[in-house]
TrEMBL record:
CDD domains: PGDH. InterPro entries: ADH-like_C, ADH_N_2, ER, GroES-like_sf, MDR_fam, NAD(P)-bd_dom_sf. The lineage of its organism: Bacteria, Pseudomonadati, Pseudomonadota, Gammaproteobacteria, Vibrionales. Keywords: Oxidoreductase. This is Putative oxidoreductase YncB. GO terms for molecular function: oxidoreductase activity, acting on the CH-CH group of donors, NAD or NADP as acceptor. Residues 15-327 form the Enoyl reductase (ER) domain. SMART domains: PKS_ER. The keyword Magnesium does not apply.
Length: 329
């Protein structure tokens, strides 16, 4: 079996030197165990946080140990009747080709028409994050004007489309013109390329003269400052992520206009998708029917081979993905 270990804790943007591909031998499976061959794995921005040695909502990765993350695999040997050979499981055992498990923490995937990897994207954690952030955190209303940052990514592109279906006016920000046209095709009302826009706050004011009611925050920094300037009274900010700060080597300044939270009576709430997981069934039913009715679309960017996983991960911070960034093993 092959696995990718954390070789060193990255300083700034990770490099491939921070990772090491290692061959290990797995134990024979015992009664109750299964052997899983991974088919797909996810790379996600939150993994950068786990590379820092600090206390958080999830323990840090350890140097010299395999990384972890969402993966979809096939059971190839089984001494556990709950997981027959040929069944597909989702796990947190990514970054490795194979693993032995007693089934704890694994989810048997339903047999559906959907591509397996959609359970790492639109039907999985990122899709659920968009849904939970909009409905359970931002309390989305059909009359809202919604601003989504990192809008063409795994979470952002789903958030944009859900908000559109709910009747909202939606504005997205992205890092390339190609991503902008993709979002326009998905029905997003206005898209700002933050890399070629001189004044984000002004650009937002131009496309949303009525103001923003909900900001789905994925980026932080200048994006948050621009959003605050354009929020309407009683607006809601769901803080999902702050990707512009994940590779910072020193503490980042807060927005200079924070007092607008008071003046505009804003509500700002951070959230972690796993706290909402008891609603996964509700989400999956809804998302499943949107997909079946062809009301929602998704993109994926696929790197091929486990050894490409570090590049795929690093690519997240360079905007190399459209939709969900995946590794096909
Ligand atoms: P994405 O698919 O959106 O990939 C990351 C994207 O972020 C890149 O494609 C890039 O797009 C953009 N980006 C990277 N660096 C910067 C930067 N410095 N400034 C602005 N944009 C940048 O990833 P996900 O959809 O998986 O995650 C999106 C956000 O949601 C992240 O902040 C993540 O941490 C958060 N998240 C939070 C969860 C929670 O439970 N709270 C769960 C899942 C995700 P572009 O080319 O447009 O710049």
């Amino acid at each position: 079996s092959t696995e990718i270990q954390l070789k060193s804790r990255p300083a700034g943007i990770p490099t491939t030197d921070d990772f090491e591909t290692v061959t290990i031998s797995l134990n024979e499976i015992s009664e109750g165990d299964i052997l899983v061959k991974n088919l797909w794995m996810s790379v996600d921005p939150y993994m950068r946080g786990r590379m820092i040695d600090r206390e958080s909502y999830i323990p840090p990765f350890q140097v010299g140990k395999a990384l972890e993350g969402g993966a979809i695999g096939e059971v190839i040997e089984s001494k556990n009747p709950a997981f027959p050979v040929g069944s597909h499981v989702s796990s947190m055992m990514g970054w490795r080709s194979h693993f032995v498990s007693n089934g704890e923490g694994l989810t048997l995937l339903p047999r559906t028409e959907l591509p397996l990897q959609s359970f790492l994207g639109i039907m999985g954690m990122p899709g659920m994050t968009a849904w939970a952030g909009l409905f359970r955190v931002a309390e989305l209303k059909p009359t809202d004007t919604v601003f989504v940052s990192a809008a063409s990514g795994a979470v952002g592109s789903v958030a944009c489309q859900i908000a559109k279906m709910h009747g909202c006016k939606v504005i997205g920000s992205v890092g390339s013109d190609e991503k902008a046209s993709l979002l326009k095709e998905l029905g997003v009302d206005a898209v700002i390329n933050y890399k070629t826009t001189e004044n984000l706050s002004q650009a937002l004011a131009e496309v949303a003269p009525e103001g923003i009611d909900v900001y789905f925050e994925n980026v932080g920094g200048e994006h948050l400052e621009a959003a605050l300037n354009n929020m309407n009274q009683n607006g809601r900010i769901a803080v999902c992520g702050l990707i512009s700060q994940y590779n910072a080597t020193e503490p980042q300044p807060g927005p200079s206009n924070l007092s607008l939270i008071i003046i505009k009576r804003l509500k700002m709430q951070g959230f972690i998708v796993f706290d909402h997981w008891d609603h996964y069934g509700e989400f999956a039913k809804q998302m499943g029917s949107w997909i079946a009715e062809d009301k929602i679309k998704w993109e994926e960017t696929v790197y091929k081979g486990l050894e490409q996983a570090p590049d795929a991960f690093i690519g997240l911070f360079e905007g190399k993905n459209k939709g969900k960034m995946l590794v096909k093993l």
